[in-house]
Amino acid sequence: MTSDGTSAARARTLTVLVYSDDRGTRADVRRALGRRPAKGLPFLTYVECATEPALIARMDAGGIDLAILDGEAVPAGGLGICRQLKEEIYRCPPVLVLIGRPQDAWLATWSRADAVATHPIDPHTLAHTAASLLLSRFPLA
């Protein structure tokens, strides 16, 4: 057990990739999730990507536990990129897509996103959704 009561296996960090062409959106995501979005989860580290080529290269390198993609990013939106990732990466990590309008949820289904959240970012909702995705992959012992 570590000093905060978690097992040594839980002491590792989880890596969250945040993709958006808007640095403010990337910062909003980091602030919403913080160091640990749910009790019992390991601490988070962040990888930020502002371009599609950087995102694809980083995802191909592996080691990502959750990807959060901005569906409103330009010129390459997160919905299309999500679909590409799900088709091309074996055992693709969970992908959460930020959408501009709730009515765009059908596009997230098409993209095979594991979850969606809307702009503007609601910190509580985003943290809860991200924690749910991480817990589905790394259940608490």
Structure description:
- The structure is a single chain.
- With 141 residues, the chain is of the alpha/beta class.
- The protein contains five helices and five strands; from the N terminus they run βαβαβαβαβα.
- A five-stranded parallel β-sheet has the order 2-1-3-4-5, with helices on both faces.
- The radius of gyration is 14 Å and the shape is globular.
How many beta-strand elements?
A: 5
**Spatial gap, N to C terminus:** 12 Å
User: Any idea what the shape is?
Assistant: globular
Largest sheet composition:
5 strands, parallel
Overall SS class:
alpha/beta
Question: What is the chain-wise order of helices and strands?
Answer: EHEHEHEHEH
Rg, Cα atoms, Å: 14 Å
Please mark out the parts with pLDDT under 50 across 5 or more consecutive residues, or reply none.
1-10
Major sheet: arrangement of strands: 2-1-3-4-5
Tally of contiguous helical segments: 5
Instruction: Give the fraction of residues assigned to helices.
Output: 25-40%
Q: Beta-sheet strand percentage?
A: 15-25%
Q: Report mean pLDDT, rounded to a whole number.
A: 91
